[in-house]
Amino acid sequence: MNTPAPAKVQPGLNVPFFWPVQLASSMAEQGMALLARNVKFADEELRLHDGSIKPRLATTHSVRLKLRTLDLCDYSVPGAKGIPTLVNAPYAGHTSMIADYHEGQSLMQTLKNNDVGPLFLTDWHSATPDMKDLEVDQYLGDFLACIDDLGGHVNLVGLCQGGWMAAMLAARFPDKIASLVLAGSPIDTHAGNGPLVKMVKESPMSFYADLVASGGGLMLGKYMLAGWKNMHPEQHYVQDQIDLYEHIDDPVWLSKTEAFDRWYENPLDLPGRWYLQVIDQLFKRNLLAKGKYVALGRTLKLKDITCPLYLLAGERDDITGHEQVFAAEDLCGTPKDKIQKRMVPGGHVGLFMGGRTLKETWPEIAAWIVKQTG
């Protein structure tokens, strides 16, 4: 009868200082090659999540305006003519890198390469403590200043939360907007039954107020990031690490992963007063869709929007369901023959930075913009 070899007894290292020692010992038993791979994995994992990889816009541009809340970035080709197109990135906790993500995978590059003329992007700033009491009106005011600086008549492209802001200005100043694109934008925030709709409805305002208070008057980006990750915990806390380990020797995969984490893992802080106003008036009470939202001194009526309208939604978008986007078709005053709708495969983020959507859908949108205003 064979006697099984006794299992090696591992010391009980209860002091955290010594945990890496035990880990190294275990890995060394599996061979130095595996040890090196695991060290490389640990190093890359730390780089991705320790804040050392900072967000940056992928494409060369200049800054036309520097305002308190944003930079207005100019992506225009030299000598570009025609009505300016202004892309309004979402101010929802992540940087405007969502619109200019990676070389060869950038919404701004796609629009630029498909003959959209003068081209600009809002690059929203992370809120500082002195900005904690800013409201939506202050952001609309700076957004309006950008439009006026561009001549007062633009094509607007609203991405995600940047869409409701674009719709507000289009309703408040309809003569300033030549055409409007709403991509993954929550216009009727009570439409559909997505997870975000349920979360907002079920959570009391005191919950959000407490988060703002704990952030010293700001809604801290790290709180929002934790909430987004917890919508898909297996993906963010388990599968991401498995994927990284399996691709640790693939430089192309690592480059794309670093680009994503450069954007995803570096959230912006938001003014607490602005955040509570948006949660209460837009998401809980749905005042914009109901025609009761007051902005810049006037009650907004979406029926005042009569310009050509393009609506883009994702089939599996769990942030902004297609019902919330397509509701604009009936809420806005644009004639039906001036409205274009498109549903594409994929989720929310893929609408703006997914390779397939950038290749197949955004060139179509670029052509639509040129056609409407050519």
Automatic annotation (TrEMBL):
UniProt xrefs under SUPFAM superfamilies: alpha/beta-Hydrolases (SSF53474)
Listed name of the protein: PHB de-polymerase domain-containing protein
Classification lineage: unclassified sequences, metagenomes, ecological metagenomes
Coiled-coil portions: none
Transmembrane segment boundaries: none
InterPro entries the UniProt entry points to: AB_hydrolase_fold (IPR029058), PHA/PHB_synthase (IPR051321), PHB_depo_C (IPR009656)
Annotated ranges, domain PHB de-polymerase C-terminal: 224-371
